[in-house]
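lol so apparently i was supposed to do this last week
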Amino acid sequence: MTRPGPEAPDEASWDKAVAALTGPDEVVLACHVSPDGDALGSMLALAHALLRRGSRVLASFGEPFDVPASLRGLPGVDLLVRPDRVPAAPALLATFDTGSVDRLGGLADRVRRAGEVLVVDHHASNTGFGTVHLVDPAAPATAVLVDELVRRLGVPLDADIAACLYAGLVTDTGSFRFAGTTPATHQLAARLLATGFRHDLLARELFDTHPFGWLPMAGAVLARARLEPAEVGGLGLVWTETRTADLAARGLGLDQAESLVDLVRTAQEAEVAAVLKELPQGGWAVSVRSKGRVNVGAACTALGGGGHRFAAGFTSHAGLEETVAMLRAALAGAPRPAVGDA
Ligand code: AMP
Ligand code: MN
Ligand code: MN
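anyway here it is w/ manganese (II) ion bound
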């Protein structure tokens, strides 16, 4: 089936991207707020490649400038600079895993003032806010596009670049379980592993490490999950919420709530899973997942957020019940991809 939205990058776009990265002395890199493994991994992988070529690189993301605990072991995290150190008008700004300008948070204004804006992304909803676009909605991770860019820049993969790209690949494919995983995904993983980085340690940090307090927090949050079989046109919704107090009581940051949706979505009786995360400043960051029969990206876009067809999110400034009611309504009208359409 033909998909709306951007096509895979053509040769001219790749050439323009390489030319843009070859010009300026200093390159500014930015990824989306509350970065995940794909956003940070893709950005740091290109940072390493540009440093190898002798460029000066500034890499950052919008406030809150906290690197999630699970990503602190990525090689090059020490290269990150606070967003207030990013020049007001960079000659070249490259963005990663960022579907729209607002997802850059406090760095959004740099897009308007930059000379060139290179957009590297895989969101079908990408708004095309750059001057050069490497956007491929068929790519399972932004890291796949960065791998190709690094190759075209003539930089051989090394263990640092590979670890960063692997973090993006393994995060966005759900450890190679999601439908977007192809033979080419595994071939890329094989090339990355061949550089010799410790993928076992990286995966443990990314997915299998929490402070002890995470266990009772997850227990409490999962214990109040609600199953609503009649929602989503009878396909079922399961949801729960994390309160600031759930996290604060155990000394946990908001990043410790990110993986809960992966537990909630295992409920067999529900097609769609959601976790509403109370924000310290008020409101809710909502993570929504589908098993493949409902386009939750469309539902979240309708609610002012965005994402992919089967993994999406939005921010709500309404109360808990009202936010869930908005989600129920958006899901009831959400498109249903044809079965088997990955
Ligand atoms: P998350 O649930 O935070 O892991 O996000 C899943 C996907 O939804 C990400 O890949 C983002 O593209 C997208 N997403 C999450 N929150 C938002 C938001 N507030 N606005 C736009 N896209 C979002
Ligand atoms: Mn992301
Ligand atoms: Mn991504």
